[in-house]
Amino acid sequence: MVIVSNRVADLRASSQSGGLAVGLADALKERGGIWFGWNGEREGVTGGDLNIESIGSVERIEAQISPQDFSDYYLGYSNSVLWPLFHYRLDLVDFRPAYFEGYQRVNEMFARQLATFLREDDVIWVHDYHLIPLASFLRKLGCKQRIGFFLHIPFPPPDLLAASPNHAELVDGLLEYDVVGFQTKTDVVNLKSYLREHASAVQVAEDRFSIGERSVVVDRFPIGIDAAGFTALAKQADEDVQVDLMRRRVLGRRQIIGVDRLDYSKGLPERLKAFGKLLSTHPEMEKAVTFLQIAPPTREEVDAYSDIRMELEGLAGSINGQFADFNWTPIRYIHRPVARDKLAPLFRGSQVGFITPLRDGMNLVAKEYVAAQNPEDPGVLVLSQFAGAAEEMHDALIVNPYDIDHMAEQLHRALTMPLDERRRRHETLMHHVTTQDAQAWLQSYLKTLTQDEPEYGAVG
């Protein structure tokens, strides 16, 4: 098994923090193989020496890229073109020809470096938007192994995708894989629509397209979490969290929590506005509830991210200035990472999980919030209709993240929901989170990737 991602997971860590690493590290350790990716440094030499570390039966291989390639491949095409484009934000796309050239250049280099380690019977699994063209470069080098791709973020509809001058090359790159996996039905429909309208691929089955002498599966594989592990983590609050919980119990205060990277796709300003609206339309909530928003920094070199930070800090200050009292601060805003062993009990001690991205691939925080709850007295999940998780988690309170008034009313509903209804909703959500977990996702995808290619006749 060969895993390729933009960054290589820490295989020595006892628990992984990101959705990409959940389950993958353990699967790789079980099977043996390679995890290949960039070392995360920006001062290297493109094509320079690889850092190779053996951990049991796994080789962890890290490549270097130059400062120019960091600018063009990572900050440029990956995060100033593909990220906003795939999150439906055409207004933030900053396309420059040099960016796409750098994106292709780094993917071609990764393919050359990886190919020297491959064996004929390897199964290769490539992850996320940074590496869409990787299979096409591996194929040009003669690689005939089964190669799969999984996109962890949304995939846009054809009319939005066409806003990129290189949309045809991107889709041609996807067609070089044997399996292309997405988080949601919407993402699958979007690629299928593009293939029918703009590509030469022929649909030969519900989930399969033919291209020349080979075919590609296009299907949905919704990612999950290690639900049992996160539930166990949630029961082990450290002293700081215990003191905070005790203080709120004594004062009779409830907590709304949101945890997101500081990103314009997460709907953070709208979330703060909705909380402010809750306080203004329901004065009885003053001093009765606080909103804890944890938003660690990300991609601060991109202008759009510094803009969202300033907007968020301004909103938090304005709402606190309007409503705060000497012994109550309505919004607590944390702009730094918080460890998972502290997050889990914070989720458990929060009466509402407020997860309202404007567009998201899946959003594992929603699933973590559910897994952390006490089933005897569970909190309520308020979830955006534009999070991939909303396709599955119907017993959350589903909201339109652009409708501030509606979100405020659903927050009020969550905070005043009877215990019987909270238990019923949580039981259904928890069943889904535990059955459709990280292992189910992993096994489902790998079963599809490793199966023999069947014979099909063209549809219709």
Q: Mind explaining what this structure looks like?
A:
- With 460 residues, the protein is of the alpha/beta class.
- The protein folds into two domains: 2-224 and 440-450, 3-Layer(aba) Sandwich (Rossmann fold); 227-435, Glycogen Phosphorylase B (Rossmann fold, 3-Layer(aba) Sandwich).
- It is built from 16 helices and 16 strands.
- The chain has helices at 24-31, 67-86, 97-115, 134-140, 158-161, 167-174, 185-198, 227-234, 239-251, 268-281, 303-323, 340-348, 364-372, 404-415, 419-435, 438-450; strands at residues 2-7, 33-38, 51-55, 58-63, 123-127, 146-150, 179-182, 202-205, 208-211, 214-220, 254-259, 289-294, 331-334, 352-355, 380-384, 397-399.
- The longest helix is centred in the last third of the chain and has 21 residues, at 303-323.
- It is globular.
